[in-house]
Specification:
Layout: E1 4-9, H1 15-22, E2 28-33, H2 45-59, E3 64-67, H3 70-74, E4 87-90, H4 95-105, E5 112-113, E6 138-145, H5 152-163, E7 165-174, H6 176-179, H7 191-205, E8 210-216, E9 231-235, H8 239-251, E10 258-262, H9 280-287, E11 306-312, H10 318-327, E12 331-334, H11 335-342, H12 348-357, H13 370-377, H14 381-408, E13 417-421, E14 436-441, H15 444-455, H16 459-467, H17 472-477, E15 481-484, H18 489-514
Parallel strand pairs: 1-2, 1-4, 2-3, 4-5, 6-7, 6-9, 7-8, 9-10, 11-13, 11-14, 12-13, 14-15
Helix pairs in contact: 1-2, 2-5, 11-14, 12-14, 15-16
């Protein structure tokens, strides 16, 4: 299968048919528009936006589509592309054009013509509704955004800005200071990576511009100080922000920016969870319950049973997720319940705790009274650390004992998958005892609300309790699958089913390859 192709488009009405014919051959595709005559580059903006929007219906996200803008600006066939093109397709019989492209891109394979060879005179025409007022280009154009994992909406937005710039495009990319209130902010790529992906995409579609891509910590970024800017491109929902930019520039005696507004691309998912537009938030939501990161090799662990470490913050929904996975066939070991067992009289853990904290933490029956022990450690980091140093090793000894029993078959047939539910999994360093880590996250404010309601605590008490746990960003950094229970019960169930099916498919494939 060729990894990258180039499609010469002469008949926009055949785009859907062409893409469906090509998608099985490529995973990335450049679009070269075979235009009829030189025209101002912005004149093609509506057609290209529609092309991107329609492509989502034909190939979804399976093919990374990029419409080349350099030929529209320079009317030349030479292009410097970031990816090696393996093959050229054409929706009309244009052998001379395709041969020039093959030579320029050093492609040895013959062109694949998708239509009747007699179809030779087709070229793209400008839409009859193109207005002259939409065709103005500017030396210096500015845009801004998060640009997390470039999708169709981004491609339309970026293309509109590139078409309207003929010298320099300034792009402001938000840093964590501005993304903390986004949906699932912990899943947003680092801004350095987003900038890298942006630069690669922009230079690919048009290498004639100077790209100044900068991180921004506030809503204004370069627009607050750059005197050379003339145009700002915004979406309909951020138009108000563009007016605020001009208000600020007026106070600094900077020229007012012309404003070009594009429509948002509507999402086809209307479930009350996803946003109504194509967005990075929807992309992150769709990543829940999927493979976030490949597991590291664990040569120290037997292949069976396959151990999932399930963790997350207080009130994130770990226990309910463990229950879901148990219902689907996993054997669940609840480390909180195991901890209760190792606290029992006669256990080494019980003896060590009483020796340090004294007998006044005991109930009348000789068991450790957690309501007496708790106040001794919470709010006292040294004592809490000492308690953990006693309990965690003993708890893992007991967990390993139970795993050994499962492997021996003493408790019945060995389970295929074991879920080790542990709030302290990462703090205790137990992730190395698991084949991979699955985690539950909810927004901090949602966690505070849940802890207050569940434990009848004040807001201050709830925040103090949450302050002692691993934050969401650190949990995500060590996770291989991520869930979030901040939406409806059914959506969390869907995440669980997706992850369970994925893992079983992977394990079955691995077992089959070992036969």
């Amino acid at each position: 299968m060729a990894s990258t192709g180039l499609l010469v488009v002469s008949n926009i009405k055949q785009l859907g048919k062409s893409l469906r014919s090509i998608e099985k051959y490529v995973n990335s595709l450049y679009i070269h528009l075979n235009v009829s005559a030189p025209s101002p580059a912005p004149a093609w903006s509506r057609l290209i936006s529609q092309l991107y929007a329609d492509s989502g219906s034909y190939v979804g996200t399976k093919v990374d589509l990029r419409v080349l803008l350099t030929p529209l600006k320079q009317q030349q066939q030479y292009m410097k592309l970031g990816r090696t093109v393996d093959i050229i397709f054409s929706d009309a019989h244009q052998p001379e054009l395709c041969d020039r492209l093959r030579a320029a891109l050093n492609i040895s394979k013959p062109t694949i013509f998708l239509e009747d060879p007699s179809n030779t005179d087709l070229q793209l025409q400008l839409p009859a509704t193109t207005e002259a007022t939409n065709q103005k280009a500017y030396p210096n154009v500015v845009i801004g955004g998060t640009f997390d994992r470039i999708h169709i909406g981004h491609k339309i937005f970026l293309t509109q800005a590139v078409l309207r710039a003929h010298k320099r495009l300034v792009v402001g990319v938000t840093t964590p200071a501005m993304t903390k209130n986004k949906v699932l902010p912990e899943l947003i790529l680092p801004y350095e990576e987003r900038i890298k992906q942006l630069r690669e995409f922009l230079t690919d579609i048009d290498n004639t511009l100077q790209y100044d891509i900068v991180p921004i910590d506030d809503p204004f970024g370069p627009t607050a100080s750059d005197p050379d800017l003339q145009l700002i491109v915004v979406s309909a929902e951020t138009l108000r922000g563009a007016h605020k930019v001009n208000e600020l520039r007026a106070t600094k005696e900077l020229c007012q920016l012309d404003i070009f507004t594009i429509d948002i691309v509507e999402s086809k998912v209307n479930d009350g969870i996803h946003e109504s537009k194509v967005s990075s938030s929807n992309t992150r939501i769709d990543m829940l319950g999927t493979r976030w990161r490949q597991p590291e090799a664990r040569p120290n662990l037997p292949e069976r049973p396959y151990i999932i470490g399930l963790t997350g913050g207080i009130a994130a929904g770990k226990s309910k997720m463990a229950e879901r996975l148990g219902d689907m066939g996993a054997h669940v070991i609840d480390c909180d319940k195991v901890a209760h067992d190792v606290y029992e009289p006669g256990q080494a853990c019980h003896e060590k705790i009483v020796k340090h904290f004294g007998k006044d933490i005991l109930a009348g029956d000789g068991r450790i009274d957690r309501t007496k022990l708790g106040p001794r450690v919470f709010g006292n980091p040294q004592e809490l650390q000492l308690l953990n140093s006693i309990v965690w090793p003993e708890l893992m000894v007991e967990v390993n004992h139970r795993l050994a029993n499962l492997r021996s078959g003493a408790a019945g047939p060995m389970p295929k998958i074991v879920v080790l539910e542990a709030a302290v999994l990462l703090k205790a360093g137990w992730e190395t005892n698991c084949h991979e880590v699955w985690s539950m996250i909810v927004p901090p404010e949602e966690a505070v609300k849940r802890v207050m309601e569940r434990n009848n605590l004040s807001e201050i008490e709830a925040r103090n309790r949450l302050a002692n746990q691993v934050n969401n960003a650190d949990v995500v950094a060590k996770s291989h699958v991520i869930f979030s229970s901040q939406w409806a019960y059914e959506f969390t169930q869907l995440q669980a089913e997706r992850a369970w099916q994925m893992l079983n498919k992977e394990l079955d494939a691995k077992q089959h390859s070992n036969l």
